[in-house]
Amino acid sequence: MRISFSHRPRGSIVFLRASLCLLLAAGSSVANNHARAQGGAGSPPALQPVPPSDYNIAEEPTVRAVAQVMPAVVNIATERVVSRRTNDPVDELFNRFFGEGGSYQPRETRQRVRSLGSGFLVDADGTIVTNEHVVERAADMRIQVTFADGTTMPARYLAGDRKSDLALIRVDPSAGQRPKPFLHIDLNNPSPNLLGQTVLALGNPVGYNSSVSRGILSAKDREITVDNNVYKGLLQTDAAINPGNSGGPLIDLAGRLVGVNSVKMSFTSQGTPTQGLGFAIPAKTVAAKVVELKAEASNPQQANRPPTTADNDAPAPPSSSGGSRTTSTPVTRQLFGLSLVPASGGSSGRNNNNNSVSGVTIADVEAGSPADRAGIKPGMILVRVGTYEANSPARIEALLKDVPAGTMVDFVISPGGRRLLGGLTTETVTLRARSSAET
Predict the structure, then answer these.
(1) Which of 140, 165, 238, 402 is catalytic?
(2) Model-level pTM?
(3) Is residue 317's pLDDT more than 50?
(4) 305-438 belongs to CATH 2.30.42.10
(5) Residue 402 a catalytic site member
(6) Domain boundaries, the chain
(7) Is 165 tagged catalytic?
């Protein structure tokens, strides 16, 4: 039997080999061409930007909102003079070793205190909303506002409310280069304030003008306590709020007002550090308070605070209306939280030289009142109001009966046998007369 072999398998193998070579050559050519297109073999692929015709950064919602609102945001710089009367330690030492006959007048020291904050325009006339704690004691001092374009103009205090921590100031257009009408935020079109919505905090943190931070609306109706003052109904946000942001606007991506930046919480009451806890006053609260403060400012009695006793050494003058409070509650209690009684035995206390100190006794201090926040305690002696001797409670009532809310009044206090800080026997404490709404 003869076996013969076919030549077909050999031809098939040759064909397969040729096909494989062609495929490898084609693959190598494609790879080389792709490598050359990417700038060389082994180079990472280059990101291809979106053509400008397809995407405009200026149309981003955040960019549009900031461009819309920032012209209405201002930096507020305040400057005031703090005046204190103290006994000179050298005089005290001299009297201690060489006798008690010398009579020395307390020495007065003055110090300029500057602070920074933010605010924003709310009408075309140049009215600015900010926090009361930003301008609280700058009513009779210098207030300068700086706009986003660098224009600086003077401003004056109109009215404020410590309970809500809101205040109004107004720029003086005649003293600057910026003409009316002013670009401003519309308080009648607030944000709906929905949880989770994007918010932007605008202002001047630590003096860095026209800064923006971004976050969300984290919570509503929060209550916090700051310096024994309780603030309710606040908004919570994780947008960065730092010193200097106070008084600036918190807005949504449509440029509508969410609230007024007010405070951040850096530590809990137990000292635990926190992050992303900022608080703002809701826009609806702001709108209502602005109407109230404008009405107060339109009253000549409230339009400007009288000069402080620290500046002219005299208590505030009576109001132009000549009216007085008719309630039976003592004026010192209404305005400052102080209850006074006559000194027993005709002498209220003694100083470090064992000399008699005339005055009236502070019998009680209302919790949370201006006197309480200033550290005044029952048993201390009220020696003078401005330069007027505190001879009796009736005398003090007569001096203060027509003092408007918001007036800054100097009280010279003696500890009544206890020593104040630094061994001083008297200290001048400046208190702000509160309104009936704050009592």
Answers:
(1) 165
(2) 0.55
(3) no
(4) yes
(5) no
(6) 66-175, 198-285, 305-438
(7) yes
